[in-house]
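Researcher: Here's my situation. A collaborator sent me these components and asked whether they could plausibly form a single complex. I don't have experimental data yet, so a predicted model of the whole assembly would be a useful starting point for our discussion.
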Amino acid sequence: MSEMKTAAYICTGCGIGDKIDAGTLEKIAAKEGKMALVKRHEFLCGAAGVQMIRDDIDQEGVTHVMLAGCSRRAKSEAFDFPATATTRANLREGVLWVVAEGGEHDEIRQEMADDYVRMACAELKKMKVPAGNPATANNKRILVVGGGFSGMTAALAAADAGYQAVIVEKSGQLGGWAARTWKRVPAAMPYAEPQETGVAELIDRIVSHPKISVHLNATVAETRGAPGRFAVDVATESGAAHSEEVGAIIQASGFTPYDIARLPELGGGAPNVVDHAGLEALAIAADGGAIKRSDGAEVKSVVFVQCAGQRDDSGAHLPYCSGHCCATSIKQAMYFKNANPDVDTVVIYQDLRVPGMGEDFYRSAQNKGVIFTKGKATAVKAAGNGLRVDFRDLILDEDAAVEADLVVLATGQVANSGVDIELPDEDPAKAQKVSILNLAYRQGKDLPILKHGFNDSHFICFPYETRRTGIYASGPVRRPMDMQQAGEDAVGAALKAIQAVENASLGRAAHPRSGDLSFPNVRLEGCTQCKRCTVECPFGAIDEDEKRFPVFNESRCRRCGTCMGACPVRVISFENYNVDTVGSQIKCLDMPDEFSEKPRILILACENDAYPALDMAGLQRHVYSAFVRAIPVRCLGSVNMVWITDALNSGWDGIMLMGCKKGDDYQCHFVKGSEMAHYRMSKVDDTLQQLGLENERVVTHEVAITDNARCARLINDYVAQIMAIGLSPMKGFG
Amino acid sequence: MAKKNIAFYPGCSSQRKSSAANYLTSARAMCEKLDITMNEIPDWNCCGASVGYAEGGELPRLAITARNFALAEQHLPGQDMVSTCAACWLATRETQERLAASPQLMQETNEALAAANLVYQGQVKVRHMVEVLIEDIGYEALKTPVVKPLQGIKFAGYVGCQTNRPFGIAGESFENPLYLDKLIEIAGGEAVPYDQKVTCCGGALAFSEPDKAQRQIRQIVESAYDPGAAMIVTPCPLCQANGEVYQSEINKKQNTRFNMPVLYYAQLLAVAYGATAAEAGLDGQVIRAARLENIAA
Amino acid sequence: MTEAAYRNDFLKEVEAHVEAGHEVKRCMQCGVCAGSCPFGPYWQHSPQKIFMMIRAGKREAVLSSDAMWMCTSCYNCIARCPRKLPITHIMHGLANYAHRLGLAPKGQPTRDFAVMFWQNLARRGRVNELKLTLGHYFKDGIGAGIKQGLAMKAVGLGLYKAKRLNPLEIFGGHKVADLSGFHAIVAKAREIEDRKRGLAS
């Protein structure tokens, strides 16, 4: 873009023109904002208004557009000028709808609108239209790690959509646990009987599919690169090694049943006590006939103990519910009832959890005469030729016992998640584990673990997303689930993988800024090799070269700007979002003097939740102080400390940072951004002291998108607090 | 208003000098104004009520009600079998549905009926009088004959159990049925919000477990006083009797001063339609409804 | 702890012999019935517990429970049961079965009243309210009956004044005309039912 030509458009619609003097805004845009063209329109988002802008772009050579009217979140389809840098001054949601009614507020309302026009003009002049990353990567093959039900389904989904898929399976055959299952929980009407697993047909389709190749007895020895250009070394048991070039990876490494030997009190390890997998083996051997124990005796009575070693709050066993076990036990109880209705089948459960259409399946089992009893098993002991289960009957509120030929323990799923990259190296638990992906990433060999040993996935509202771009977890490795869910999961992960390779090939960002063409530029000559960017990147996008300079893998990058926020020497920037685009807004204000009684409060608001929350506060007409000026940021993690010091030096009286919830139940779209910002701001007190300012002048809040009234309250409380401690003495020095 | 013929099943409590005799009196007055002809099923017998279960068992209960069906089919073909009593309606409707659903029970029932040379062909449509009012005549048309609106009187519409559960009136909820309130308003009265609208009065256990039942009744009467109701209105003979006649007992035992008239919706409509106090069965109240008597006079 | 605990034996007996007994196995133990019963404070066992006891094989405890006799037939449990179990009918069926086996609690007032009610209606085809009431009061003997009758004198007098009680009913009262036909139907139905349920007539 050789020549910049700016234009400002001021909309007077939606009542803006009634309360705000557009003439003043025009003057400010022209004189202070130095906009080459300044126009006013009473209905800018209407066809005529948009056409006016388009004509200016096409005929007048306008390259940069400032729109003063509604929020950047409104009318984004009308104001879509992809080749033109665009900023918005938020006069409607940000001024008109939040400043108190009445003539006595006219002056401060106008000042607020004036400042937003100044800020939008200042930002506009620092922006460039992102050209996209020229270093695109074009490999669109998809690697699936794990050949079980989820992995096979994912590979087929990708292949059927036209993408090459490669399966790496550790064992000698495809199918995983599903292949060792006699029948599955029904997935179709009337949800009344166990149904065929369909695994053999699935394997046939995989083997004969022209777009799918399979490595058996194989593991991933190393994974290098980024979306669109992963290089994966595949090691096979025979010692042969292949290298596969792929564009995205689906990790479907599945689960291992919790070891029943760890449940000796429930008979784990004793004869005639099996887990679900053990019972499937007996059922396959029986092939529809009477199920026999390992000693050959026909089972005439069976007891299922639910939640065995699960939902345990003692810390000894799994703390979580594996979700599928109730339906699986119902299914297995039917194996017995269908072969012989006279077999006594008792399911001892604490809460029968059968999501989806499982309630119909449960009813069907009740109709077959399976006895369900709400209780908690305390002991399983040998009794005669069989076993005795002691339990507390939670309905009759008494200790009870039931005898059985066979006991099935419904144990949970343990994720095959590889190494926990957050554990210190010397941790013995980690030493036991073998990496699944062997990532050659600075941040560690495997996907991060989210909770209870399950791989990172489903961060906030986005299933399948992990913190490693282009690598998607699918099936029970990301959370406990049944075949039905694993199948749906696999298709979802395959679609995410396809999205990732397509975005990578166009140099665009992946989720959640999907399609963003901006990417971090680094001025390496200014870099001091402090490594903060490489350490703080939530997505492990930045490696280090042999000289310890950061190496940006753009297609791994989510464009949150956390690296930009981290950089103490400010060498990282995006074309349309950088230290200057925000810094120039902070410094452009017409700052009232110390004795004006008109404080100026800067809000740096996360664009994902906090800024929409402020907009919605306006929509709901929650009145807040006209002394605040809000600037949206990509993520609180992108807030560079220089903005804080610039603002304080410019005479701003207070700074509010509004970001997403952090911690274990974080809602940050970039996982760690909000947390980083909170951490950085916890160190701001030194800066404030150096400037002789009170600690209260910088505050940080966690704000959810629904906190609309609360946002207004936070603002008003803070303004009152600032008025109480007095205006900043720094005015006039900036 | 088109003339309507119904096969009427009065039930034991509606007989002369029985506990709900005034229900029948008022229903007759009401139906006359609405041009409904009540053709009593000849030689009908008791429905067995609910409490018949212990000694009666299933099939004898079904069979005695099927006898009424057979008589209705034989003598009043094509007419809906209509009850005013909640228990009669419930027992007959239950029987009708169970026989319709089970060919075996139908066959066994007819085997029993054959002992009296009767046969049930499965043709009878069982209904409650309220259904005839709401569904056949309609709320709007029910207003037409009103000549003496019961203005200024607050009523607590006590629906109770058996006209409400398990079948209920079509379109009404179990927890808050509204039809009775609508009938009160049609008669010109005011229906107060009443939180014991569907509470059980104890039913037949008012005899066998009087203390337990009277706790229910106390709650029902007391909660009608709370929103300022002057009278309770109900569609059920047992609700009416339990609600009315035990007030003196409760007063005696628990030191309350209840004196709340308990009426049938049919009495309200009859008075509103211009019936005399006697025609509306107001002389059958143990606790007299003086304000209604004044209007009816 | 008997061998039959949590076996199907008693459940199968209930399914074979009790009205609507085949529905018991569908109970999902949510307890909504227990919370919906107007006589909740009084019974030994909620319907929920009765159904679990059946499945746990507690035959004696179930059939001798007073729970079924506390049913007022309000049908609240049926209306609210998320599984649509005909709970009222099952409770009636269990009461009938326990009564016929002679296992129901002796002297249970509702049991006695229910028997009297059926006998009253079965005799003449229609209920004789006076005889039913007096029979009920005098069930524990003449002395207790007079005492009860006097205690309830006000109630009876009120009904009499309102022409809703007829003292002359003691000498006969309402009845069906074809009494022999009515009796034949009841006898035949009873015979079929007892044969079907394996009960001695």
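Model: Some features of this prediction you could bring to your collaborator: The first strand of chain A starts at residue 6 and ends at 11. Residues 660 and 703 of chain A are 5 Å apart (CA to CA).
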